[in-house]
């Protein structure tokens, strides 16, 4: 499943969303550096914390929700890693990324 542009639309469990992301990370060889929690719900407060999107989580992601996904959530011990946060509105037909920033890779 892919929350934005996805192969499957909601509802889905938070664990299914995590598993789809985890599959990509594992194939790239970074599975051991991937965090167990990759996102959470957004509501009246900045962070509602539910649903928690992570490994094996059973909370349901459904149309009308707004979630915050921490991407790429891959960290190397002693080095660290980037954290880019996407806020996504979950729709019945098409999900929408609400955050707006440049997405091009910047090499220094």
Sum up the overall morphology in one term.
globular
Quick one: CATH class?
A: Alpha Beta
**Can you tell me the CATH superfamily?**
Creatinase/methionine aminopeptidase superfamily
Structural class category: alpha+beta
3D structure, described in words:
With 108 residues, this protein is an alpha+beta fold. 13% of the residues lie in helices and 27% in strands. The protein contains one helix and seven strands. The mean pLDDT is 82.
Name a few traits of the molecule.
108 residues, alpha+beta, two-stranded antiparallel ribbon, Creatinase/aminopeptidase-like, hydrolase, single chain, five-stranded antiparallel beta sheet, 13% helix, 27% strand, Creatine Amidinohydrolase
List the helices and strands and how they pair.
Blueprint: E1 12-13, H1 14-27, E2 37-42, E3 52-54, E4 60-61, E5 66-72, E6 83-89, E7 96-97
Antiparallel strand pairs: 1-4, 2-3, 2-5, 5-6, 6-7
Task: Provide a quick synopsis of the model.
The protein has 108 residues and is α+β, with helices and mostly antiparallel strands. 13% of the residues lie in helices and 27% in strands.
